[in-house]
């Protein structure tokens, strides 16, 4: 495998050629490192000096939202219950999340990206700390590899400005396709094997780059799809490329076409199904003697949140609400319990969806009885990039609160 890590460069000139189709696509993915934890450390340097920071609520949902790299080294992860994080890392400092502060910080960081990338770039915010930028207009070279290399000074400049102006670090990936750019930024994080912070995947080397990844690293491959692929011997992208059978028969038509697209080097954007479902749900039924109760529900819910978040990302939408429903009895139509809540901002963040769902179960006391069936989902979505302001205009006619609405952050 041959990928290229990049030293600092200073040239940041971006010719503005206007929006049109370009022969050599150039995509940059910017992802902040341990965003919430990094913001808290920056804002309380003395207080947290030498300490391991885990961001999460003390009370229900007592879940890790973000963990710094020292905590991650001890296997602490977003979505994990706080008690479990404490077992793994007893010396950790738990910091209460401040979502409005992170949203404000996010806007400032995105503004830096827009400013540095220039008017010819196509910008897309995909979550509070992540964005794609299509810089094809400014980076056309003699061939695909030459074009990608032209994006390096620009990508480096984004990192420098974020560090200088906001004292926060980002990891940046450059590739000809979105999902490869994202894998590239993931591959150069401070806790990765190649912690350089900026990774360019040349077009001529992208298949080699992809081969080493586990299939579940691909967009749209959640626990269920992963299990189906593993069952036919597909564990890595290399296995996927070598597979001679019909992928649609293994994982269904939609996922099969998505995976074939990856193998053929097509971006997921070009192969996304046209008719997007309005509901994104993950459901699981349990047999007698295997019905989870109390803490046994947590890993099931986490797996469902992962699946729903992956599906949202695949379709490039964000959840506006989260709902859970449970069934306790066999041969019963309908649900025994149901709860839903509107999120403080639209998201496809697995940790937030999970924490919200767990909070719903607890506030409605839905996991105190063994579950026959558990369903987690969202019934309303908005396109990626939609901000909290766009969906939370105050209703002037009625000041009545939704009785199901629960404030989480
Ligand atoms: Mg991040």
Can you put this structure into words, describing what you see?
With 409 residues, the protein is an alpha+beta fold. It folds into three domains: 22-204, Reverse transcriptase/Diguanylate cyclase domain (Alpha-Beta Plaits); 215-271, Orthogonal Bundle (DNA polymerase, domain 1); 280-391, Dna Ligase, domain 1 (2-Layer Sandwich), CATH 3.30.1490. 36% of the residues lie in helices and 19% in strands. It has 16 helices and 14 strands. The strands form three sheets. Strands 1-9-8-2-7-6 form a six-stranded mixed β-sheet. A hairpin with a 2-residue loop joins strand 6 (122-127) and strand 7 (130-134). It is globular. The two termini are 43 Å apart. The relative contact order is 0.12. The model is unreliable at 1-19, 268-276 and 387-409 (pLDDT under 50). Magnesium ion (MG) is lined by residues 31-32, 35, 129-130.
SSE topology sketch:
Elements: E1 4-5, E2 27-32, H1 35-43, E3 53-56, E4 64-67, H2 69-73, H3 82-88, E5 93-95, H4 99-117, E6 122-127, E7 130-134, H5 144-150, H6 152-166, E8 170-175, H7 178-187, E9 198-200, H8 206-211, H9 223-231, H10 237-242, H11 247-251, H12 253-263, H13 268-271, E10 280-285, H14 297-314, E11 317-327, E12 337-347, H15 350-363, E13 373-378, E14 381-383, H16 388-391
Parallel strand pairs: 3-5, 8-9
Antiparallel strand pairs: 1-9, 2-7, 2-8, 3-4, 6-7, 10-13, 11-12, 11-13, 11-14
Helix pairs in contact: 4-6, 14-15
This protein binds magnesium ion (MG).
């Amino acid at each position: 495998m041959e990928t290229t890590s990049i030293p600092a460069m200073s040239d940041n000139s971006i010719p503005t050629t206007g929006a049109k189709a370009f022969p050599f696509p150039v995509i940059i993915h910017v992802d902040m490192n341990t965003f919430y934890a990094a913001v808290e450390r920056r804002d309380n340097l003395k207080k947290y000096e030498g300490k391991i920071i885990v961001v999460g609520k003390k009370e229900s949902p007592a879940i890790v939202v973000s963990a710094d790299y020292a905590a991650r080294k001890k296997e602490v992860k977003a979505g994990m219950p706080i008690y479990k994080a404490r077992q793994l890392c007893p010396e950790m400092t738990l910091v209460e999340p401040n979502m409005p502060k992170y949203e404000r910080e996010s806007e400032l960081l995105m503004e830096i990206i827009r400013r540095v990338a220039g008017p010819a770039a196509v910008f897309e915010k995909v979550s509070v700390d992540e964005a794609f930028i299509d810089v094809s207009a400014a980076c056309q070279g003699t061939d695909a590899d030459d074009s990608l290399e032209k994006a390096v000074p620009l990508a480096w400049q984004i990192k420098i400005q974020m560090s200088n102006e906001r004292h926060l670090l980002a990891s940046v990936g450059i590739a000809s396709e979105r999902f490869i750019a994202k894998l590239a930024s993931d591959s150069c994080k401070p806790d990765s094997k190649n912690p350089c912070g900026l990774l360019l995947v040349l077009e001529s080397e992208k298949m080699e780059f992809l081969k080493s990844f586990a299939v579940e690293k691909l967009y749209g491959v959640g626990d269920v799809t992963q299990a189906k692929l593993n069952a036919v011997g597909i564990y890595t992208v290399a296995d996927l490329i070598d597979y001679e059978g019909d992928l649609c028969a293994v994982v269904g038509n939609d996922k099969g076409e998505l995976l074939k697209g990856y193998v053929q080097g097509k971006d997921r954007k070009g192969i996304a199904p046209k008719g997007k479902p309005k509901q994104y749900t993950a459901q699981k039924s349990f047999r007698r003697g295997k019905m989870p109760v109390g803490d046994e529900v947590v890993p099931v819910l986490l797996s469902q949140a992962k699946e729903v978040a992956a599906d949202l990302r695949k379709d490039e939408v964000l959840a506006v609400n989260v709902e859970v429903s449970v069934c306790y009895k066999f041969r019963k139509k309908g649900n025994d319990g149901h709860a839903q809540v509107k999120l403080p901002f639209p998201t496809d963040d697995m940790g937030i969806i999970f924490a919200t769902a767990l909070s719903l179960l607890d506030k409605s006391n839905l996991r105190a009885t063994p579950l026959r069936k558990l369903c987690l989902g969202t019934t309303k979505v908005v396109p990626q990039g939609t901000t909290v302001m766009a969906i939370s205009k105050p209703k002037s006619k009625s000041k009545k609160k939704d009785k199901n609405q629960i404030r989480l952050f």
